[in-house]
Amino acid sequence: MGVGGFRTWSGLGGAALDLVLPRECGGCGRIGVRWCEECAATLRDHPIRLTPRVDPGAPAWALGPYSGPRRRSVIEIKERGRRDLAEPLGDAVAEALTHLVRWGELHHPTRRPLVLIPAPSRSRAARSRGGDPVRRIARAAREVLPTHCVEVHSALAMTRGVRDSVGLSAAARATNVAEKIAVTRAGVGLVNRHVDVVLLDDVLTTGATAAESIRALARIGIRTNLVLVIAGV
Q1: pLDDT-derived band of residue 170, with 50, 70 and 90 as boundaries?
Q2: What residue spans define the domains of the chain?
Q3: Looking at the whole model, is its pTM more than 0.90?
Q4: CB 142 within 8 A of CB 116
Q5: Calpha distance 27→40 (Å, rounded)
Q6: What gap in Å lies between CA 73 and CA 83, rounded to an integer?
Q7: pLDDT in tens, 186-208
Q8: DSSP 3-state assignment of 126?
Q9: Does the domain formed by 45-232 have CATH 2.20.25?
C-alpha cells in the first residue's frame, strides 16, 4: 500500500481559495503556506494505540494526541471551514493505514478490500460545516491509496435526538447516542462482503460514538476491524 508524497497547493484552485481563506498553515498558523512540512511530518508519525473510557469493541488508534497540529487542524476544518485541509489530513490517514497494514492490524487491500466508514455526525452540525469533514478526509485518503482496493461508504447516520456532546461525561455521551445510530443503505450493501472495515473519525474523546457505531454495524453482521481517528483525547 503506497502513499503518495506531500501534495502541493498551486494552480487556479489554490488561487481562488486564497480569496476566501488566509494563506496560513492549518496545523501551526505559519504565514505563507496552507500546510507546512513540519506539521506534515508530525502527522506522518506512527499511529498510537488508544484506551478509551468506553470500550468501542474494536482496537482504537490515533495519529497522535489531541494537541499541536492535530488539534489545530481538526478545529480549522470543523469550525472554520478549512476544506483545503482534507487533503493533508487524508494523506496522514493513508500513512497511518499503511503502518497498520504493515503491523498486521489490517489485511493488505490487494488481498481484501479496505472500507473506510466515516463516523456519523449530527445533520445540523454537518450542514453548518458545509458538509461532513470526516467524509472529505476519508475520500482524500482513498485518493493516495490503491483506489481499486479502497472504498469509502457513508454507512452510518445519526437519528434524531442526539445533542451536542461537548461537556458531557462518558456515561452521558453513551446515553446520548444509545440506539440513535442507524445503518444506511450503503452500509447494508456491505453485508456478506469479505472486507476490512475501518471506522474513521476526527477525535476520540470517550469512545461512546465509536462503540455505538460498531454495535449498529454488528447488528447486521458487519465486523469493524479497527477505529482510526486524527487525535485521541
Answers
A1: confident
A2: 45-232
A3: no
A4: yes
A5: 8
A6: 10
A7: 999 999 999 999 999 999 999 99
A8: helix
A9: no
